[in-house]
């Protein structure tokens, strides 16, 4: 295999993985707070459509990013209200959010174009690649790592910051506490309800941002079913990453890489049917999940937050 | 006067709230949809009327004895009845089967395989409906059941999270199905049309009237079967016990692994049946349109029905009416048909929110001093 091909695969891997990284870390933060939000697919696709619509009408992709953050947060606040205040089942509430979000995204996608026309097929502003001087000249990896769009660079900063926040700061400790043992956190004087709201909505904003990267940079524009199940891969990646932001990057890049290879193989033309290649990420997800679950010891060391999915009620014993 | 709201746990689940909540939620979702439609520049009242007439027909049509719209709604409801029942069984045990979509698709694929290839492979089989229809049903049920068995085995023996596995298996099934109807099983005489050859007529499920077919009777029978198993047998009691309290079930000596496998065989098989009727009674070939989300809508059906099989039939009909009505307003008013999807999502969200009133009651507690509010009243 020649170098140019490898570089191009690496480049696509990173850009394809970026939206997954944002969304996965968003979901990690939510789940660390003890809230399981299966609405990622719905929040992501709403982020994607709203980002594109806002960028198209304002002419500024940053307005799109801001809109996606707000929309992602609003979607997540539905889940927060249902599960934290109204104590609804987290699994079904998340599913409801996904069904609602995919329907609404399809609906607004057909009305938010100029004069109530569909958004499909329109060309709007996008984040183009900005080579970083000097760094992008590094042989081999320079092009792949440092000739990307600005949201990719922001991800490079965001990952260590989120890991530092989670493990090394007091608010990060509180975040982990409300997901591990809300009773203890409550007794310590941590406001479990407020923080669970905060991190569910914050996680949703990041998922929205992941959607924005899809419609503004990776595959600019809006098509029906743009996310194509990425939101569900995010749910699997959270488990794959064992709720750790750094490992989320590894997982997201692995999936981005499968995407990139399948993209390339299709371009070259192979005898392997396209559908078989497209199945790979999903098969891989199951295999990885089985392996993680299998290694009990590994799972216990860095396992799921103990109170994940359980509503917290002060006056009642759960 | 200062007051605050307090949620008090009810000692018993409120029966009135239990059945009222889905109905009120339906109304609230329609109101929400009305706002959305108004924002999109449509007249909500006219839109809903067009949807209603699209789904059930106009008064004039009824007087003339034309029930075309109603029959189309029933046709759309049949697969939802099966997937709703499929999901309801699994959710009764709190086994989160999100995979009805894939199980349905493979059920359709298996039925298509029998219809397309058995006549050549087994020429000694009499070419009769009495032989072939049971074969199609068995093949579809088996395919769906096997697709449900994979996550069941992974869950019961390796404790692998079933939400992810059932979901991923959906995508694998759908891609496989697309490969089959677009390439492998594509009709060479089909003028480039992506789809298999037409099935021989003895593999078609007969129709009752219009496009309405025997699948409806099968769905009602399936609901009866589910009701008997879940509410009238020891096995069903065990399954419900696991769903309500897994630990209690385990202490009582109920085998979790065996029940998970059984439930998923049944759940996958029912979803597979939805696929069988879709290909064998409607399209008569394997083509696009099996993966339209009936498996996911089944989740809404099951939840709105409170996992009750009879209620699932009714909710399947109502949600089907939304879909058919949605198609209607797309044709007649140029509005996106996805309004049906939005409404369904909204109904489910309102139901989830309203469910709290079945378990809790809301009390307004008045207090004169603000700090007294922080303390529960001494009683």
Task: Assess the beta-strand content of chain A as a share of residues.
Answer: under 5%
The SSE string of chain B, one letter per element, is EHHHHHHHEEHHHHHHHHE
Principal-axis shape of chain B equals globular
What distance separates the N and C termini of chain A?
Answer: 57 Å
What is the strand tally of chain A? 2
Q: In terms of per-residue confidence, which ranges of chain B show pLDDT below 50 for 5 or more consecutive residues?
A: 372-379
Number of strands of chain B: 4
Largest sheet: spatial strand order of chain A: 1-2
- Rg of chain B is 23 Å
Order of helices and strands of chain A: HHHHEHEHHHHHHHH
Please state how the strands of the largest beta sheet of chain B are arranged side by side.
1-4
Q: Helicity of chain A, in percent?
A: over 70%
Instruction: Using the alpha-carbon principal axes, give the shape of chain A.
Output: globular
> Which structural class do you get from the secondary structure elements of chain B?
mainly alpha
Short overview:
The complex is a heterodimer of chains A (318) and B (379). With 318 residues, chain A is an all-alpha fold. Chain A contains 13 helices and two strands.
Question: Please, could you describe this protein's structure?
Answer:
The complex is a heterodimer of chains A (318) and B (379). Chain A has 318 residues and is mainly α. Chain A is 71% helix and 1% strand. Chain A has 13 helices and 2 strands. Chain A has helices at residues 3-32, 40-58, 61-85, 90-109, 141-146, 150-168, 170-180, 182-187, 192-218, 230-240, 245-268, 274-294, 296-301, and strands at 130-131, 147-148. Chain A has a two-stranded antiparallel sheet with strand order 1-2. In chain A, helix 2 crosses helix 10 (230-240) and helix 3 packs antiparallel against helix 4 (90-109). The mean pLDDT of chain A is 88. Chain B is mainly alpha-helical and 379 residues long. Chain B has 15 helices and 4 strands. Chain B has helices spanning 15-39, 44-56, 59-63, 68-92, 100-121, 129-158, 162-184, 215-232, 234-244, 246-251, 256-283, 294-304, 309-333, 339-354, 356-359, and strands spanning 3-9, 207-209, 212-213, 360-366. In chain B, helix 4 packs parallel to helix 8 (215-232), helix 8 crosses helix 9 and helix 8 (215-232) packs antiparallel against helix 13. The model of chain B is unreliable at 372-379 (pLDDT under 50). Classes of the chains: A mainly alpha (318), B mainly alpha (379). At the A-B interface, helix 3, helix 4, helix 10 and helix 12 of A face helix 7, helix 12 and helix 14 of B.
